[in-house]
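Lab meeting prep.
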Amino acid sequence: MKYDKVVFFDIDHTVFDPNRHTVPEDTVKAFKALHARGDTLIAVATGRALYMLDVIAPVLPYVDVSITINGQIIAYRDKVLFDQPMTTAMIVEIRKALIRHALVYGYIGAHGQGISRLDDAAKAQFALADMPLPEVDALYFRKHRVYQMWAFASKAQFAELAKDLPDYQLVPWLSDGFDVVLTGRSKKDGITFILDYFDIPLENSYAFGDGMNDIEMLAYVPNSVAMGNSKPPVKAVALHVTKAYDAGGISSGLRHFGLIE
């Protein structure tokens, strides 16, 4: 099928409501209306893995493309288009730095996660994100392909680790943690891949996001939308600021660009 346009959506605090653990009904209606156009590719661009997308089950029937793990695995419906795990050398280097700072850290695989140790604070974080608890295995990478690493850390620890790992992108979460992403692989790179694959001009692309890991995506996509619940640095790079995710932000943003009525 030939698509004329594409809309990329972050998931957490954009499509997914973490407080009610669901997708707002207004957002579901907006996705359905966007899908009904027939000329627009609907994509999610997220730090989550494919197996974590069940939290947006109400809108999944309308999603065509999944850019997951910040661009490490990209799928069009049931077909994987791109798959780039970390090398063992990369993982060992990152792990040594995290251990030096005595952090709780983890791995994201294609079908599951591993964590160095599972304490109450870690359990609370996974409950907040509505994610299944990871397997406790500090050497998870020896048995599974790993696409991204992450850790819980204070702002001071984050700053020190950024110095220790200059060859990687450290993307902070809204809470006390961060992702360690391969340099040259991000949501933006996943978007570039999709635009090339489907031959869609950049000017016909749209993106919705709220987090620090959405800044590069929103700065790159010309028709970008920051959710009303975004922090100031995210709003600063977006072309348009819509309402919050739980106040009709998706539908309002899509109407702003004339994508739905």
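Slide two material, second protein:
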Amino acid sequence: MSYTTSYYHIVFRTFRSEMTISAEYERELYAYIYGIAKNLHCQTYRIGGMPDHIHLFVSLPSTLSLASFVQRVKTDSSKWMKANAHFPNFRGWGHEYAGFSYNLHDKDKIVNYIIRQKEHHQRFSFAEEYRAFIESNGIPIDKRYFLQDK
């Protein structure tokens, strides 16, 4: 028996950062994403966001990579949203995503950050938030691709 755990704060945005997730139906989307994560045997601690992006705080089983998890969430939720009348202008998710690892001691801090998204974005744009996350985690940003969709 192996004992492992992986906690991730994941952030991804809508295609071209379009405002296509209405506040009226965001909880419906979050519930759908929660179901995807549950079917993949992940523990979801919080899902939240804004009309143009999503934050997830999850723990993944050792058999599932971060990239595989994000691919499934984005692919499955995109198909569902495109078929759902509550998201008529949704054209897909942006190409990139960000995923940062944390430990259990950071859980409350990350969950509270996600809960306060609407308050946070009264002061900071998504681009500013995203850039700060990436840079504070020591990841170099290639300006040719940063927040670019084809």
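Talking points for slide two:
The radius of gyration is 15 Å.
Strands lie at 6-14, 43-50, 53-60, 93-102.
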